[in-house]
Amino acid sequence: LEGDIGVIEALDDPELKRPPMFKVILLNDDYTPMEFVVGILTSYFNKTIDEADALTTEIHKNGKGIAGIYPLEIAETKLRQAIKLARKEEYPLSIKLESE
Fold first, then answer.
1. How many other β-carbons are positioned within 10 Å of the β-carbon of residue 97?
2. Separation between Cα atoms, residue 68 and residue 47, nearest integer Å
3. How far apart are CA 55 and CA 65, in angstroms?
């Protein structure tokens, strides 16, 4: 088998790409209490009380606010958890996802 020498070429390292990210946006309404929104933000979006208070005020004043930015599966899970609790408590809280 002389002369049958194989050459192994190094493959380029595959470039790891960051997954597409999505904004979880809470929308203001006239019925969901601000305290409930603060609870959602601390429970599901890992905000401190101060961050949640500030964001809830922003949502109230501007009509919406970004609760967080996550890969799609995580964003969808957080949205579903928050909406499920809101419906259980009979609040019309609205949340949407937007591509970053």
1. 15
2. 9
3. 6
Express each pLDDT in 3-18 by its tens digit: 667 666 666 667 888 9
Enter the tokens of residue 88: 């259980």
Buried b (16+ CB within 10 A) or exposed e, 53-87: bebbeebeeeebbebbebeeeebeebbeebeebbe
Nearest Cα to 25, choosing from 91, 94, 89, 87? Answer: 94
Task: Tell which wins on pLDDT, 72 or 10.
Answer: 72
Averaged over 21-43, what is the pLDDT?
98
Look at strands 21-27 and 64-71 and give their pairing.
Answer: antiparallel
Please, what is the average pLDDT of the chain?
A: 93
Nearest to 26 by CA among 65, 75, 84, 57: 65
Give the dihedral of Cα atoms 38, 39, 45, 47; nearest 10 deg.
Answer: 60
**Residue 70 · residue 22 · CB < 8 Å:** yes
